[in-house]
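User: Hey, my collaborator sent me this sequence without any context and asked if I could get a structure. I don't really work with proteins. Can you help?
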Amino acid sequence: MGQVVVVRHGQASFGAEDYDVLSGTGEEQARVVGRALAHLEPDLVVHGSLRRQRHTAELAADAAGWSAPLHEDRRWDELDQFAQFATIEAVPDESDAVAFQRWYEAAMGRWSGGEHDDDYTESYAAFHDRAAAALADVAGAGTVVVASSGGPISALVTQLLAGGPATYARLLPTTVNTGVTRIVSGRSGLTLVAYNEHQHLPAEMITYR
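Assistant: No problem. I've predicted the 3D structure and written it out in structure-token form, which is a compact way to encode the shape of the chain:
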């Protein structure tokens, strides 16, 4: 039986010029989750191509003392959903929380509905297929730790729960930075055994974006 332990990246730099950089809190979250997973002896550590994913994997591996090689796989990258959605309709000012939430929910529904797939660089179905293919490739490789993002994690959990777009939309905003999702592979296929575990984080270090 193999297991894939998927870790969401540490907190990035929301509001900064370059979002794709771990904040100081994000770096510490990565070290904390590494120490919490130090009992594992991964055969492989995988991360997406985004800097926040790679840096999370590096910090966690160092804190855990893992000797397994680190491997990059772009299929674990986050979907740039806001860039995609903004091509359809202008993004309202995030300081207007009500207007922003209304826009986001409408944009998410349009993207995941499947009726306008040609309008997007990556459709909802294609994004979910990408995540599933990435998981399938490591599911039989023993114990694998993956540093990814909320989108791919939510896509995989949605599929493993036989959910649909509504499930995905509910899961996505709940993913905690360095939250841990565990999937095992066995005779019956892939099974979700834990989602978004974050007991390793003290309350003041729990963040969602």
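In plain terms: The chain has two domains: 2-78+122-205, 80-121. You can pass these tokens on to your collaborator as they are.
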